[in-house]
Amino acid sequence: MEVSVGTAALALALLLLPLLYERCGSFRFFCKMGFYNGWILLLALVAIPLCALRGRDVENMKIIRGLMQHVKRLYGIRMEVRGAHNFPPRQPYVVVSNHQSSLDLLGMMEVLPDRCVPIAKRELLYMGAVGVVCWLGGIIFIDRKRTHDAISTMAEAAHTMLSQDVRVWVFPEGTRNHSGSMLPFKRGAFHLAVQAQVPVVPIVISSYQHFYSKRERRFTQDVWGTGTCGAGG
């Protein structure tokens, strides 16, 4: 029986991959992040036909959240939610939260209230299937490079909150922040709350540096706390 050099090399590589995954933290990090991004894309493809039945509707966030619930278990992550009773019942409000990485999506889906949509940068709209499902979920897209358009979008969001009983989730730092501290807040979330005359609910997504670090190429598994701190006017 003849075995080509290429086939033998491929077989050897496949045999070594589990060992490399176990021993090399950087390789494990890229494997996990690659799978995470690929799985999100797959879930988006599944969600599109389900959400399309309603069209663009905030109620589609329930479908998106339901599809995302199992992802944390794939990574051996356990979440603890504290203070969820502080969400104001039966009224619109603005949620403000810190933003560390793309993993925040898991924390958001763990505590996302009913009829709540995030505000996202407009570039997300053009990310293929992910952009389509975000649009179907009623996510509010803002063009940060065009101040006038951004102001207009926030005014429309305030009207939507009141007319359709919608909650809005905002990352007021405006960008991902891996430092462990908070960046200065942009004012948009608070202008939105004033315009709509609704409460602000702060949420802290606890630091997960102990199991995830992009800089150190580290991604293990652990308990992750997502706490609702309270509500303010």
UniProtKB/TrEMBL annotation:
Pathway: Phospholipid metabolism; CDP-diacylglycerol biosynthesis; CDP-diacylglycerol from sn-glycerol 3-phosphate: step 2/3. GO terms for molecular function: 1-acylglycerol-3-phosphate O-acyltransferase activity. The chain crosses the membrane at residues 34-53, 124-142. It catalyses: heptadecanoyl-CoA + 1-(9Z-octadecenoyl)-sn-glycero-3-phosphate = 1-(9Z)-octadecenoyl-2-heptadecanoyl-sn-glycero-3-phosphate + CoA; 1-(9Z-octadecenoyl)-sn-glycero-3-phosphate + (9Z,12Z)-octadecadienoyl-CoA = 1-(9Z)-octadecenoyl-2-(9Z,12Z)-octadecadienoyl-sn-glycero-3-phosphate + CoA; 1-tetradecanoyl-sn-glycerol 3-phosphate + (9Z)-octadecenoyl-CoA = 1-tetradecanoyl-2-(9Z)-octadecenoyl-sn-glycero-3-phosphate + CoA; 1-eicosanoyl-sn-glycero-3-phosphate + (9Z)-octadecenoyl-CoA = 1-eicosanoyl-2-(9Z)-octadecenoyl-sn-glycero-3-phosphate + CoA. Keywords: Acyltransferase, Lipid biosynthesis, Lipid metabolism, Membrane, Phospholipid biosynthesis, Phospholipid metabolism, Transferase, Transmembrane, Transmembrane helix. SUPFAM superfamilies: Glycerol-3-phosphate (1)-acyltransferase. The keyword Lipid metabolism applies. Its EC number is 2.3.1.51. It comes from the Eukaryota. GO terms for cellular component: endoplasmic reticulum; membrane. GO terms for biological process: phosphatidic acid biosynthetic process. Residues 93-208 form the Phospholipid/glycerol acyltransferase domain. It holds the Pfam family Acyltransferase. InterPro entries: AGP_acyltrans, Plipid/glycerol_acylTrfase. PANTHER family: 1-ACYL-SN-GLYCEROL-3-PHOSPHATE ACYLTRANSFERASE, 1-ACYL-SN-GLYCEROL-3-PHOSPHATE ACYLTRANSFERASE ALPHA. Converts 1-acyl-sn-glycerol-3-phosphate (lysophosphatidic acid or LPA) into 1,2-diacyl-sn-glycerol-3-phosphate (phosphatidic acid or PA) by incorporating an acyl moiety at the sn-2 position of the glycerol backbone. Belongs to the 1-acyl-sn-glycerol-3-phosphate acyltransferase family. The HXXXXD motif is essential for acyltransferase activity and may constitute the binding site for the phosphate moiety of the glycerol-3-phosphate. NCBIfam families: AGP_acyltrn. This is 1-acyl-sn-glycerol-3-phosphate acyltransferase. It comes from Cyanoderma ruficeps (rufous-capped babbler). The lineage of its organism: Eukaryota, Metazoa, Chordata, Craniata, Vertebrata.
